[in-house]
Design goal:
binds cobalt (II) ion, 15 strands, 4-stranded antiparallel beta sheet, binds 2-amino-4-trifluoromethylsulfanyl-butyric acid
């Protein structure tokens, strides 16, 4: 999973570097496919429940699952990229949100809060805590910063399958509930954070998820493993 994670991260980094005004989301998808193939892996998303691409590319008010296509990125856009790699029987899954050129300060703050909410969440990712401790930490941090957490999509266990039990919500229904975290558990935690209301809608293509109110949305995700000590992030370059 460390190797699958490194490949997923490499694909994410290369896509992120290519984000710029005038670039199409399909071009980013092609970059991801190339990187993943060169590493001897396959894209986790391609063909998953009929999904047609290697990445999800979600611009501005698109929350997740934006399908790559002819759309051009424009100056000031925020571009969420989600990519997974399958290598020697295991998956790595990660996402980040990138700025195209110069973006509004509020958009940058949304990106920063989304990323930091992940790290606030995994501070709670220690043996004996529960899934809901991660969820609560993410929600608390996001809401303290005036943003909202998407409820309709969640993080997940990951391993031989991209989506395994347990679900990892980014909001907390009932604290002190839900599965306990155990050593060796591998999770993909992925806060989706909206600038305004948390509500989302799915477009007629059956995939694209947008904010109901047109507010911006950002996404950040890593795959990690629970240990006796701090969790270890698996979606990072091998040399780190
Ligand atoms: N990171 C997302 C997830 O964990 C990506 C899935 S997109 C799909 O669910 F197309 F593969 F479904
Ligand atoms: Co995921």
């Amino acid at each position: 999973m460390r190797e699958a994670g490194a490949i997923a991260k490499l694909a994410l980094i290369e896509c992120g570097k290519a984000v710029a005004p005038g670039v199409t989301t399909r071009e980013l998808d092609e970059i991801a496919r190339k990187v993943i193939k060169q590493c001897g892996a396959t894209p986790s998303f391609l063909g998953y429940q009929g999904y047609p691409a290697a990445i999800c590319c979600s611009i501005n008010d698109t929350v997740i699952h934006g399908i790559p296509g002819k759309d051009k990125i424009r100056e000031g856009d925020i571009v969420s990229i989600d990519v997974g790699a399958f290598y020697r029987g295991y998956h790595g899954d990660n996402a980040d949100t990138f700025a195209a050129g110069i973006i509004a300060p509020e958009a940058q703050r949304l990106i920063d809060v989304t990323r930091q909410s992940f790290y606030e969440g995994i501070k709670q990712a220690v043996v004996g805590n529960r899934i809901s401790d991660i969820s609560k930490a993410i929600q608390t941090y996001v809401e303290a910063n005036g943003f909202s957490v998407v409820r309709d999509f969640v993080g997940h266990g990951i391993g031989r399958q991209m989506h395994e039990a347990p679900e990892v919500p980014n909001y907390c229904g009932k604290p002190g509930r839900g599965p306990r975290l155990t050593k060796g558990m591998t999770l993909a935690v992925e806060p989706m954070v909206n600038q305004k209301a948390f509500g989302v809608k799915i477009l007629k293509d059956g995939w694209t998820v947008k904010t109901v109110d047109g507010g911006l949305s950002a996404h950040y995700e890593n795959t990690f493993v629970i240990t006796d000590g701090e969790p270890i992030i698996l979606t990072r370059p091998l040399e780190d």
